[in-house]
TrEMBL record, chain A:
This is Multiple sugar transport system permease protein. It holds the Pfam family BPD_transp_1. It comes from Nonomuraea rubra. The keyword Transport applies. It is found in: Cell membrane. The lineage of its organism: Bacteria, Bacillati, Actinomycetota, Actinomycetes, Streptosporangiales. Belongs to the binding-protein-dependent transport system permease family. It comes from the Bacteria. GO terms for biological process: transmembrane transport.
Automatic annotation (TrEMBL), chain B:
Belongs to the bacterial solute-binding protein 1 family. This is Multiple sugar transport system substrate-binding protein. PANTHER family: MALTOSE-BINDING PERIPLASMIC PROTEIN, MALTOSE_MALTODEXTRIN-BINDING PERIPLASMIC PROTEIN. GO terms for biological process: maltodextrin transmembrane transport; maltose transport.
Length: 319, 403
């Protein structure tokens, strides 16, 4: 119902001719009214909470009593007081490791899937659907399934490894294996990146590939000399957004290491205690909302620095 | 006409948007509606029990509507904390035992009005979990404890002492290398919660909260942790880390609570298991858990809310209510709903169960200090003594205690 109406208002040929004085102001009003819901949403649910969090990061607050101003104490304690926050730096290191493994793995998986999908004609839609499914599956279900896949006794992964003679591992309970195991799940969920890569591939003019073929380039050369450089803007975009997402990983770790009576202490020896999980625990389990707010702003600043560095040092233009 | 349609659409969108923003409060306009927050029903039967009690209460108090809001246990404290912060807490709700003193000291919950209940009618241990500064801030609703679950096929007679426990576990594992003797608790929050029950079994204490002393670096606690370390020899993690090792017959024994009994019976009808009190070293002991119920200070109908909580905890209802919550009655005269043969073990265990330390930061100590210490001993990165000495000194620093 709305679509044809909008079309007539904005692009209908008759309107411009019938415009009367004062119509411009009315258009402004309608414009403001149209964006009002989005604006209200932004102000109430994004800006106000963010500014509140900034304020509370300078306070000692347990959600229930009045917050008391402590200045920079939360920031200083988080960074330097390992009695109050014994696992802060551990959570930083866990998150960095996760990011370093998960982001490249996701990009490689997404690009590989996109190349395969781009190459086939028959059944492409079916495969696109299947490869995208992990993205739309509820996080809790993903956690449950992967706990089962990684199971040291019944897990499909150990069974498959056993077929090629690799001994089974206790994936989610061996500190050294927890991060790679989580990163692998992230790569399995690469559907969105895959779709974006696919769009990028579709955008490469066929003539360039043809020219490369005429010049005698093999498939390998065509990938490294033509396709990959042409995808550089896509890769850059996925790298930046992927790093931001990986630094904030929470849901996956939470469902993998909680539920079923397990408590959310972040896996064996805190090996899966990611930064945001640590933040969550202080916010809602240990009653330190002020410190949790401070953690979120430390993360914000860190993400801004990392993103700025990527814009400065990573090539973004297609070549 | 088209312009009218646009305006209509814009107005409709605005109204929808604003209505969505404004409806968070859950307003109680007539003053006769009572909102009660609780955990999601464990079983369909539990839901029926709560529904019946709600109807009975509404019948006894004409014009009153009780609204039961059921929230998954994992999200409960998060949601409650947010609700309290935004001044939209319910009239009353369930509160996990260690949180009552925190909420009370903050003035978030109301003190129990004098004369609401006869204190002597209740189990002292369960009632005491509602106290802060000597005053009563809530009513207990159920109490629970953990005990030893054993697979009858693998363990004909449950062990009573630590030595027997180690012996039985070793025998089971020796008979079949693919079966673990015991699903030894891990160094996570859950394992750290169960640990004090074992420490008490060696005659020890975790802390002396009145004297502000940390005691879990003393011999009883070290021996308790050493027991878990020793048990691992006959209970490889590779087996016990799999999904439901006890239920699947891969671990001969495990420690769990009454909440697991119906689940196991329903999902693993073929498993022949029994429940026995926890093995001990020098004295029978265990730990206590359970739910309390409180009235929030923002409640518009506190009197009615207290009446409802007392109704849940009275002699007539508490048996069924406690059972619905997954624990045992807190009212001395309440009928314990007839349970299976497992029940006797839990009831015996409750008699010797100890409440957890009344230290406001205990959850953090449990998760962040004791759990990693247990884990480092279990993985052999430190001895039990080293791990606990280190953990105790960290706890002293965190709490600001000298002893």
């Amino acid at each position: 119902m709305a679509a044809p109406v909008l079309e007539r208002v904005t692009t209908g040929p008759g309107r411009r001719a019938r415009r009367r004085p004062g119509a411009r102001r009315r258009d402004h009003l309608i414009g403001w009214l149209l964006i009002a819901p989005a604006l209200a949403y932004f102000l109430i649910f994004l800006l106000y909470p963010a500014l509140s969090a900034l304020y509370y990061s300078f306070t000692d607050w347990n959600l229930r009593t009045e917050a008391s101003w402590v200045g920079l104490a939360n920031y200083a304690d988080l960074l330097f007081d390992d009695v109050k926050y014994p696992h802060f730096w551990k959570s930083v290191s866990v998150t960095l490791q996760y990011t370093l493994i998960a982001v490249p793995l996701t990009l490689v998986a997404a690009l590989a899937q996109a190349l395969l999908l781009n190459a086939i004609r028959r059944g492409a839609n079916l495969f696109r659907l299947l490869l995208f499914l992990p993205v739309v599956t509820a996080e809790a279900a993903v956690g449950a399934i992967w706990r089962w896949l990684y199971d040291p006794q019944y897990g499909l992964i150990n069974t498959l490894l056993g077929l090629v003679g690799i001994p089974g591992q206790n994936w989610l309970n061996t500190p050294e294996l927890v991060i790679p195991a989580l990163a692998f799940i992230a790569a399995w969920q690469c559907g969105i990146s895959m779709i974006i890569y696919l769009a990028g591939l579709k955008g490469i003019p066929g003539s360039i590939q043809e020219a490369a073929i005429i010049d005698g380039a093999g498939p390998w050369q065509r990938f490294w000399r033509v396709t990959f450089p042409m995808l550089r803007p896509t890769t850059f975009y996925l790298l930046v957004t992927g790093v931001i997402a990986a630094l904030q990983v929470f849901g996956l770790v939470y469902v993998i290491f909680s539920g079923n009576g397990r408590s959310v202490t972040g896996g064996p020896e805190q090996s899966g205690l990611t930064y945001v999980l640590h933040l969550y625990l202080f916010a809602f389990r240990y009653d330190a909302m002020g410190a949790a707010c401070a953690m979120s702003f430390i993360l914000l600043v860190f993400i801004m620095i990392v993103t700025a560095l990527q814009f400065r040092f990573v090539k973004q233009e297609a070549a | 006409m088209s312009r009218g349609l646009v305006r209509g659409a814009v107005v409709a969108a605005l109204v929808c948007g604003l209505a969505a923003c404004g409806s968070g409060g859950g307003g109680q306009s007539d003053g006769k509606e009572l909102t009660f927050w609780m955990y999601q029903d464990r079983t369909p039967q539990a839901g029926q029990v709560m529904e019946q009690v709600r109807k009975d209460f509404e019948k006894a108090n004409p014009g009153v509507t009780v609204k039961l809001v059921k929230i998954p246990k994992d999200d409960y404290n998060t949601k409650l904390g947010s609700a309290v912060a935004s001044k939209s807490a319910p009239d009353a709700g369930i509160l996990d035992q260690p949180l009552v003193s925190k909420y009370a000291l903050d003035g978030t919950i109301k003190e129990v009005p004098a004369g609401l209940i006869t204190e002597a009618d209740y189990y002292k241990g369960a009632l005491d979990t509602n106290r802060a500064n000597g005053k009563l801030y809530g009513l207990p609703q159920d109490q629970t404890t953990v005990a030893l679950f054993y697979n009858r096929k693998l363990v004909p007679t449950p062990p009573k002492t630590w030595d027997e426990l180690k012996q039985v576990a070793a025998q089971v594992h020796a008979a079949d290398a693919n079966v673990a003797g015991m699903n030894v608790p891990k160094g996570d929050g859950y394992g750290a919660w169960m640990f004090p029950g074992i420490v008490h079994g060696a005659g020890g204490e975790m802390v002396d909260d009145a004297g502000k002393k940390v005691l879990f670096d003393q011999p009883p606690a070290v021996e308790a942790l050493q027991l878990w370390v020793d048990l691992q020899k006959s209970s490889p993690r590779k087996i016990t880390d799999s999904d439901k090792p006890f239920e699947n017959g891969l671990a001969a024994m495990t420690i769990s609570g009454p909440w697991d009994v119906p689940t196991i019976k329903e999902q693993f009808p073929d498993l022949d298991f029994g429940v026995a009190p926890l093995p001990y070293k020098s004295e029978p002991a265990g730990n206590i858990g359970g739910e309390d119920s409180v009235v929030f200070s923002t409640s518009k109908n506190p009197d009615l809310a207290w009446k409802w909580l007392a109704f849940l905890a009275n002699a007539q209802n508490n048996g069924a209510v406690a059972d619905a919550f997954g624990g045992f009655p807190v009212h001395l005269k309440a009928q314990v709903p007839a349970g299976g043969p497992e029940q006797a073990a839990f009831l015996e265990q409750l008699k010797v169960a100890h409440a957890r330390p009344a230290v406001p930061q205990w959850i953090q100590v449990n998760d962040e200090i004791i759990a990693p210490a247990i884990e480092s001993a279990l993985t052999g990165k430190a001895t039990a003594q080293q791990a606990l000495t280190d953990a105790a000194s960290k706890t002293r620093s965190l709490l600001g205690w000298n002893g």
